[in-house]
Amino acid sequence: ILHVILGIGADDVFVLVDSWRHVSSELDIQKPGRLPQKEMEYCLVRALKRSATAVFNTSLTTTVAFLSAGISKIMPMRTMGWYAACCIIDNFLVMVFFLPSVLLIWHMHLEGKRCCCPAWTLREEAVIGTGQAGQEQTNGEAQDHAPTTMAERLIHKGYLPALKFSPGGYPVGAGVLVLASVIVAVQGCIFAAQLTPPSKPEEWMPGKHMLNGFSEFRAATFYSAPYEDFATVTYSWGIKDLDMSEFNSYHPGDYKAAVSYSSVDLTTAAAQDSLLSFCQDMVAQTCDQEGCTNSGNGELKYPSPEKVHTCFLEDFYDWLAETTNITSRVTGADFLVKLKEFRSTAENYDMVAKKRAVDVKYGSDVMKTKYKDNIGFKDGALQFFSVNMRISAQARTPYTLGVGVRDEVYAWLDKKKADLPGSMKDVVVTCSMFSRYDRGEELLSGFFSGCTIAMPVAFLVLLFATRNVVISLYSVFAVASIVVSVLGFCKSAMDWDLGTGEAIAGVIVIGYSVDYTLHLSHMYCEAGHSGLKTRAERTEFAVKNMGSTVFAGAATTFVAGGVMFV
Question: Are 433 and 292 in contact (CB under 8 A)?
């Protein structure tokens, strides 16, 4: 965000400074130097009138674009939106209240002097011809000034002649530029429509970054079991909800979990039979999605000869048969007593095998048992319980491949609930991989919400600033074309997916594109106050007075953003 704000702040500076230069060039300066007090006030007021309105409108639209991210449920995204919006407002206030003073100090003491250690002395007063200050241009012509910067020379000698090229009275130059812009926008729409959520793990560091090198070194040097790269799904009963009303996402350490539990009864034979059947069906789940790396066997479970799931009730009855020779169902209060004993004694650590005895008997290296996590008692009553299984989808499976696995698991569970007794229907499935997909969907939803909010606001701001419906519609079309062209470039040239970074950048692009479009639209309407009537004259006025500003703002923004590629 700091790089983005740097580019926007530089844009605001260019708008005011260029307005000052254009207004001061209207004066009949016979001897250069410090403007007299009257002329200085005239130029500053005119420059502020011209620039402050444009900067206010652009700041408003950019702020709204960022605030649209503030409705996101994801704390970093929401915080980014609020922080960036506050920075934009602060930028505007600095531009209006602080920058004019700096501009006057520069003009009175430093303008025209050498860059390195200039003398801090008051410049000689300029000599101004009579009848210039305080008079608006109403003669139908915008007074030109000689181009002084590279951007102005490029615009005056290259862009404007091409724009005004009209052999036989036909606006060929303008037509070619419009046609080229439409073609770019159309190809942007085509490629932007091909954007999908990430089809491969998102990379947040450059390819040569030391963090990536360390990851490769660790993978090549240290042993890691292959099954640790695969996700685990957990089916839980008894946990109804988690009260997040007191949760502060900025101080998560202060939160004390407030879990609400549902009524669940596992003391009946019917409930136990349903859970045992559930465990068998869980292992037998099928998966024909591309995200399941099951070697084509069509199974959801992780492909391994070892045990890949934990079902505490299966292990409980195995333990009960070994320790007490009881093979029939235990129900009622006796079941709870025995289950407590199993929970507290079954996980004794085997000092000889250097493993927990329960893993040797009931679990495996692929899926270790965690009875104290999977079975929860409160005040002597069974509060919750869960079963786990390692699946054939890798934990870092990208959205495009993994979302089908998630949806298939959800669909299987919805179908399975119909076979469970009443007290066992309140079952939920959790998986860290699935929660990551939910986060990605929320980011994408935030991007589209940002477009839905920012585009109408941009139209209203443009309509308020220009008081011209046609110009406002043209401008909004230009903004939309810029956004889809950028997104299309991400797909066509960079082969990126619509991931987290692209969703955030999309919101930023809306604000930037409105800025430049609104600057030109505002100056086009300003030309009417200078007596210019035809579209060609007003367009030329807008390009001459604001073209270099837009060019310089785009250049500084490019440099500010380009730093992040380093």
Answer: no
Q: Can you tell me the distance from the alpha carbon of 538 to that of 528, in angstroms, rounded to the nearest whole number?
A: 7
Residue type, 155: I
Which tens digit of pLDDT belongs to each residue from 161-184?
A: 888 888 888 889 989 999 999 999
Amino acid letter at 176? V
Alpha-carbon distances, residue 407 vs 51, 121, 396, 420 (angstroms): 53, 73, 17, 20
Exposure of 383 in the CB half-sphere (CA atoms within 13 A): 13
Beta pairing partners, 29 = 128
- Long-range contacts of the stretch 50-55 (C-beta < 8 A, 24+): 50/19, 50/23, 50/523, 50/526, 51/15, 51/16, 51/19, 51/95, 52/95, 52/96, 53/465, 53/522, 54/15, 54/465, 54/518, 54/519, 54/522, 54/523, 55/12, 55/15, 55/16, 55/92, 55/95, 55/96
Chain centroid, CA 403 distance in Å = 20
Residue 227 near residue 390, CB atoms below 8 Å:
yes
| Residue 566 Cα distances to 205, 208, 382, angstroms | 10, 11, 56
Angstrom distance (rounded) from CA 508 to CA 490 = 15
CA 491 to chain centre: 17
pLDDT tens digits for range 5-57: 887 888 888 888 888 888 888 888 888 888 999 889 999 998 898 888 888 88
What tokens does 49 get? 């009138």
Query: Which of 30, 79, 4 has the alpha carbon at shortest distance from 446?
Result: 79
Closest to 385 (Cα-Cα) out of 498, 279, 503: 279
Q: Which two tokens stand for residue 377?
A: 């008692």
- Are 273 and 266 contacting, i.e. CB atoms less than 8 angstroms apart? no
Q: Is the pTM of this model over 0.85?
A: no
358/47 Cα distance (integer angstroms): 80
Q: State the burial class of residue 465 (Cβ atoms within 10 Å of its Cβ: 0-12, 13-18, 19+).
A: buried
